[in-house]
Amino acid sequence: MGNPSGPPPDPDDAERWRRERDTEPIPRTRPDGPEDASPYPGAPSYPDGAGYDDESRSGRSWERDPEAEYRPPEISEEELAGLRVDASGMPLGPRRVLPLEDEPTALVARYLFPTERYRGEWKRHKVYLATPILIGLAATFVLGYLSGFLAGQQIAGLTTVAVLIWLGVMGYVAWKVADWFFDRFILTNKRVMVVNGIITRRVAMMPLARVTDMKYEQSPLGRTLNYGTFVLESAGQDQALREVKYLPNPNELYLRVVEEMYEPQAVEARLGKEADEAKADDGA
Q1: Residue 195 bridge partners (DSSP)
Q2: How far apart are CA 135 and CA 31, in angstroms?
Q3: How do 211-217 and 118-122 pair as beta strands?
Q4: Which of 70, 117, 225, 233 has the fewest Cβ atoms surrounding its Cβ within 10 A?
Q5: Taking the model in full, what pTM does it have?
Q6: pLDDT string in tens for the chain (284-residue length)
Q7: Which of 39, 36, 53, 203 is nearest to 113 (CA)?
Q8: Each residue of 177-192: b (16+ CB within 10 Å) or e?
């Protein structure tokens, strides 16, 4: 048989090199090596940084190493301060609840039994007195002007009536101020209580274990003056204590109640640590 026509294939043929290049396995990472490290003779070489990011040059895409572009998150010292804890597990950052008096007042102590622990007491916000005080001021100006007018008209009987009405209004204002002073919202490790009344005392309480829902509401004025209304829901139908209005620092009070309900051990640890620090300061 005769020899096949045509010259033998040239190993440096560009078409053959191109076919072998396009059918080679796709590398997983970008190859590192000298510029002339091509496995095919005569293949063009690319300098570093040229051609590897251009997918249209060879039809292949390089997969980037995710660890090469990873940057650790930047955490400030203030953020780290909130995560540090002492040997007892208590956070060393800023205090989330404000300190209160260690002992209850004489007005509140009579309603606590020996085995429960006192957590704090609060009066209603002073905005509670805004209405009676405004009534007293208006009565003073109106009845003062009326008394002067009646005195000029030489009507002594009506002047006396105006003075008596003013005294009655001032008595009402004094009653509301005294009622505000003796009104207390009380928190212990077992219950919340509201004690109010001057002549007739009323004591309403709800065990913390029976509180199923708790929220507080703030009107725009309440957000400005920092007071709110607490709403407590329990599992029972008849609730002796459900809505408490004009409580100061509602967010602070909310944190205290929630902490007492869900993390009583943290409260005990914090209070115990504060007591030890107070004793150490007294000893020093």
Answers
A1: 184, 203
A2: 88
A3: unpaired
A4: 70
A5: 0.59
A6: 445 555 555 655 667 766 676 666 555 544 454 444 445 455 455 555 444 444 444 455 555 555 556 566 666 666 555 555 555 555 555 444 555 667 888 889 999 988 888 988 999 999 999 999 999 999 999 988 888 777 777 776 778 888 899 999 999 999 999 999 999 999 998 999 999 999 999 999 888 888 888 889 999 999 999 999 998 888 765 566 788 999 999 998 898 888 888 887 777 777 676 666 666 666 65
A7: 203
A8: eebbeebbbbbbebbb
d(CA 189, CA 47): 74
**In the 8-state DSSP scheme, what is residue 12?**
T
What the block records as the tokens of 98 is 């404000």
- Could you tell me the CA-to-CA distances from 174 to 90, 177, 181, 196 in Å, in that order? 46, 5, 11, 15
Q: Which of 38, 40, 55 is nearest to 10 (CA)?
A: 40
Whether the CB-CB separation of 90 and 263 falls below 8 Å is answered with: no
Which strand (E) or helix (H) includes residue 192? Answer: strand 191-196
Q: Which two tokens stand for residue 271?
A: 């209070």
**What DSSP string runs through 128-166?**
GGHHHHHHHHHHHHHHHHHHHHHHHTT-HHHHHHHHHHH
Read off the tokens for 29. 């990472």
- DSSP state letter for 69: G
By the 8 A CB rule, do 133 and 205 touch?
no
Reading the block at residue 70, the tokens are: 């990873």
